[in-house]
C-alpha cells in the first residue's frame, strides 16, 4: 500500500517537472509575500506553537526538527536543534518555502497534503536526492469543519526512522485540532458576551454585578460614566467600600427573592454620589444565591467632590494617528495579532513609532494587566546586557547588589518584554536569548536555580535583519524565531497624507506644554514640510513643531518665518533646461548627508543635540556619519 503511494507520488513529481538533482524548493516567498501568508494563518501559528514546543522538547537533542505548513505546503514555522537546523537552512527549508510535491517532489508534507492522510517518507523514498538524508513524518491538520488547513511534520536523519515518530506527529496534530475547536468555542462565547455586553452598554442606567462575596465583577459604560471611573479601576472593589450604607441595604435584601429599591450613596476615591438603587438577586441552577445585579441612576443635583487622578498611560491603538491607506492596513493587522502569544518583530526606520506599536500590542492583549518591560539593546554596554536581561545573584561579580537583582525577563513574567534595536544585540547574547525562547527558563548570572518564565517577546529593529544574517551579524535561527509575526512600519515620507494630522496634533500638545498660543502654518511652511524627506520620521516632525512653537507664538510671526527649522533646508527642485539635463533634485543620500552636516554644524558637533533635532538615536546618527564619511 505504502509502495503504491510512493510510486504515484514519484510519477506526479516527474509530471510537475521536478528533477532528482534539484536542491531547493522552486517557490520561496520574499518578505512581503511571507508576511501576507503569516497573517492569513496567524490563528494556526499561534495555537500550534505551544504544541510544537512540547513536541520539540520531547525530541530535543535527537537531531529532529519540526515544521508547520499551510494548506499549500508553505512553511510557516520551523523549530529544532541548532546543528540540524543549519543543514535545513542551507537547503532553504525556511519560512516561505513551499514543500508541496509541485515544488520539491515527494516528501512527507507535500504527499500528506495530496493523500489527505498521515505519511512517513524516508531516505530514497524522497524524489530529490538531497532529501535522501532525511526521514519525514507528516500529518494534515483539519479545522473544526473538516477542511485541511496545513500539515505538521517532524524531520530527522534517515537512520533515525521509527514508526512511532509518525504516531507522535498524529497525536500532536490531534492536539492542534482540539485547540482549534476550543478556540472556535471560545470565539462563539466571546461573541455571545460581546453581544450581551453591547445590549447592557446601550441601557441608559448604570448596571454592575456583584460576586456572592460582595465584590464588583463588572459594570456597564453608563455606570462607569456616572461614577467617573473605568471598569478596570472598579473590578474587585468590595461593595461595603462602594455603597455607603451597604450593611443596611444588604440586610434588607438578604431574605428577599424580588428586587429591592432604595436610595443610597456610593463613593469611590474622592467622589460621592446619591443614587436610586435597584437590586436583583442572581440564582444558580440549585436556587442558591450567586450574586446580584445592581441597577442605579444618579439623583439630580448631587453633592459631588472634585477629583483628578493624573497618571501616565501607555499607548493604545485608538490613540495612534493616521489615515494613510497602507498605514491603516498595518494598524488593522497589528490589532489582529495583538492577542497572539507568538513573537512579533516590528521593523521600521528610527522615529516611525515602533515602541508606540509595541505598547499598543501589549495593551490590546490578554497580558495587558501584566508588566510591559522595555529594553533598548543598543543602549546597554555589551558587558552589562546579560545582567540586564537575566539578572544576577548576590556576589556574582564585584559590585553586585546585596540580595541580587531581577533581570528584565523576571520583571516581564506573564507580561511582555520589548527588545528594541534587537539588531544591536551582541552575538553571544543572541545565543543566550535563543536558548531562553526555546526552553522558557534561564539562570541568573552566578545562580544555579532554573527560573521558569512566561513572556511574550515583541522585538523591534531599524535594520534589515536578513542583510545582517547574510553578513554574519545576526543568527539566522534567532531571526526566524522572532520573525513569527512580522510588522513593518512605513517611513513618514511614504505617509505624506498623514503629515497635516501630525502637525495639528503636535501643534496642540506642544502649545499646551509650552503655554503658548497654537497657530496655523503658512501655506509655504506646509508645502516645505510635505516635500521634506524626514529622515528622522515622526520624531523629527515632533521636534520640528516644538521648535516652531518655541520660536513663534503668533500667526503673523509664523507667516514671516516660513523656514522649517533654523539651519535646516529642504532640497528644492531646480528648473531643468536643455543645457542642464541634470536631475531636478539631489539624490536622497546626498540630501541626507547634507542634512546631517547642517545639524552637526548648527549644534557645534554636539551629537546628542543633533541626534535629537534629527529625530534619531545617537547610535543611528553615528552609523549614518560612518556611512557618509563624516568625522566624529
Give the neighbour order of strands across the main sheet. 2-1-5-4-3
Task: Kindly report the name of the CATH homologous superfamily of the largest domain.
Answer: GAF domain
Low-confidence stretches: 301-312, 553-586
Query: What's the gyration radius in Å?
Result: 30 Å
Work out the helix count.
25
CATH architecture descriptor of the largest domain: 2-Layer Sandwich
How many angstroms does the end-to-end distance come to? 72 Å
What is the average of the pLDDT values? 84
Structural class: alpha+beta
Q: How many structurally independent domains? A: 4
What name does CATH use for the topology of the largest domain? Beta-Lactamase
Helix fraction, binned, reads 40-55%
Shape: globular
Largest sheet geometry: 5 strands, antiparallel
- β-strand amount: 15-25%
**Strands, total number:** 17
CATH class (first level) name of the largest domain: Alpha Beta
Describe it:
The chain has 632 residues and is an alpha+beta fold. The chain folds into 4 domains: 2-185, Beta-Lactamase (2-Layer Sandwich); 203-298, Beta-Lactamase; 317-490, 3-Layer(aba) Sandwich (Rossmann fold); 501-572 and 581-627, no CATH class. It has 25 helices and 17 strands. The strands form 4 sheets. Strands 2-1-5-4-3 form a 5-stranded antiparallel beta sheet, sandwiched between helices. The longest helix is centred in the N-terminal third of the chain and has 40 residues, at 163-202. It is globular, with a radius of gyration of 30 Å.
